[in-house]
Design goal:
With 98 residues, the chain is of the alpha+beta class. The protein is built from 1 helix and 5 strands; from the N terminus they run βββαββ. The relative contact order is 0.25.
């Protein structure tokens, strides 16, 4: 575990896809982004501020990083508990073909 507070927990991915690959997970179980409610806004916002903090701590903030949240089948969601991937430490290609 690299971070935890009352709203979110963050830990390193067991199958990293980049030199830095951290998962940021809300402590409240929410299956998909489609299940996020207005009452979850503070928690979802905390995921972003924790991503910023961890990127700085990991030394990837200046060069840049990617934040990824997958949703359902077409979004390639594999674990049905909302989570954000913080990935960095190398140059990435385009996300989608033009």
């Amino acid at each position: 575990m690299v971070y935890q507070d009352e709203l979110v927990t963050a830990f390193r991915d067991i199958n990293p896809q980049a030199p830095t690959h951290i998962l940021i997970v809300p402590n409240k179980e929410i299956p998909t982004v489609n299940d996020v409610e207005a009452e979850d806004e503070a928690m979802m916002g905390r995921m972003m501020t924790v991503a910023k903090k961890l990127a700085a701590e990991e030394g990837i903030a200046e060069d840049g990083f990617r934040l990824i949240i997958n949703c359902n089948k077409h979004g390639r969601q594999e674990v049905f508990h909302v989570h954000m991937h913080l990935v960095g430490g190398r140059q990435f290609g385009r996300m989608l073909p033009s």
